[in-house]
Amino acid sequence: MYKARYKKHILSFKRPSGTSRGVLTEKDTYYIILEQDSNSSIGIGECSTLKGLSLDDNEGYEKMLKHACDNINEYILNPHESLVEWPSICFGVETALQDLKGGGNRILFPSEFTEGKQGIYINGLIWMGSFDFMQEQLNAKTKEGFKCIKIKIGGIAFEEELELLTQLREHYPDIELRLDANGAFAHEDALRKLEQLSRFNIHSIEQPIMAGSPRKMAEISRESPIPIALDEELVNEFLMFGKEMLISEIEPQYLILKPSLLGGFSGTQEWIDLANEFGIKWWITSALESNIGLNAIAQWTQMLNNDMPQGLGTGQLYTNNIASPLVIEDSKLWYKGSWNVDEILKGK
């Protein structure tokens, strides 16, 4: 028999982090602590939502989390099916169980990554802010050796963003450049802006318009001079029929996959299988989890053998993250060092 409890943790950003949906200074997350009668180990999973985006971001979230913990023996049999409308809780249950099965040492998927022998290529992330702040981040990321940069756009004047990209390309003509609009463009204006952006040799742009208008997104995907990546568009589709319909209608060039938002590894694997079937490329991205969730995603990502730069560089954003072996060196995420999960395990 299993027993579970959860604990809330408020993550504090080192600096306010801007997206087109607002500026973040802190973020709530929850840890599931899982035990088994016949096992002295403890598994830890993380349940993390993004406000205004996650399917399960609603007032009943903590009540449902408590219910899942109180009835864990029911939900743990098939988290993907029983928690299909609670994707972040599904992710937390899945990862806590995988951790417990592995001995409760936070090594969920043993590999050369967890042995410290191989790192995972990641993109450097540039948050929205003033022109000077974004330029400061760009300078820092390029000096750190990142060969792939992802820039969140839509938070300052479009002309300033064009100037920022002009300067970047003048100094770093060969760097891989990804953009993330987070739905900031109006449909009527999107293709014009994409045409202007295309002169900067952009690898891809995530979610140029708001999610929820697949016909409009399909039009943009067909006509855009920049390859289109879907992100937010995927969040509300949790049944295979809906996933397949969405992909076949829009036909994007890339999928951006966040396990916390898509129903854990099981739900994300369904998107990967569809992408492979339709000839669509993809990569994995964390969704502002603490190091507990990031660790699980990174280890799983390593097992997928996807050689594209992944979006796994968010662990350094917080002042009060869980101490972990995850470090960034040479534009790669590495597993080096030890864990300290005392803060999670003490108290309730």
Key words describing this protein structure:
348 residues, alpha/beta, seven-stranded parallel β-sheet, three-stranded antiparallel β-sheet
- By DSSP (H or I, 4+ residues per run), the number of helices equals 13
Q: State mean pLDDT (0 to 100 scale).
A: 94
Structural class designation:
alpha/beta
Globally, the shape reads: globular
The description of the largest β-sheet is: 7 strands, parallel
Helix/strand order? EEEHHHHEEHEHEHEHEHEHHEHEEH
DSSP strand tally: 13
Say what oligomer this is: single chain
Radius of gyration: 20 Å
Percent helix among the residues?
25-40%
Unreliable stretches covering 5 or more consecutive residues: none
The first-to-last residue Cα distance is: 20 Å
- Strand arrangement, major sheet: 5-6-7-8-9-10-11
What share of residues are in beta strands? 15-25%
